């Protein structure tokens, strides 16, 4: 069964800031890779993908997760592969974490999708559109309010 989980970002929460959101996504990546998942992190564009990769390099060594941009890294990939629209993720990815606001066309290639509902109204509407796309694709959907967790 394919599942899509939308994490709801609360207004004025730590995750409603760029550093807090990056830290929360990193926390999710650590959580899922700890369970053995191979993750595709879908960013908005090349600049955003590179910013995510740089963030993963800057975390404390005890929280480091091996990662690479699509087309880089070892032959069989790392636990987290970072890309953006127009790039094809490695064949061995089971889960996508979507940090882009407008892309959901990749969804059917993954058993599990993680997405976000931001606070800003336009971004929230785009999340609703992605939710509809996942529902039409037959995903089992759930929403979760983010509970702040230290990364």
From TrEMBL:
<dbReference type="InterPro" id="IPR007459">
    <property type="entry name" value="DNA_pol3_chi"/>
</dbReference>
<dbReference type="Pfam" id="PF04364">
    <property type="entry name" value="DNA_pol3_chi"/>
</dbReference>
<dbReference type="GO" id="GO:0032298">
    <property type="term" value="P:positive regulation of DNA-templated DNA replication initiation"/>
</dbReference>
<protein>
    <submittedName>
        <fullName>DNA polymerase III subunit chi</fullName>
    </submittedName>
</protein>
<dbReference type="InterPro" id="IPR036768">
    <property type="entry name" value="PolIII_chi_sf"/>
</dbReference>
<dbReference type="GO" id="GO:0003887">
    <property type="term" value="F:DNA-directed DNA polymerase activity"/>
</dbReference>
<dbReference type="GO" id="GO:0006260">
    <property type="term" value="P:DNA replication"/>
</dbReference>
<dbReference type="GO" id="GO:0003677">
    <property type="term" value="F:DNA binding"/>
</dbReference>
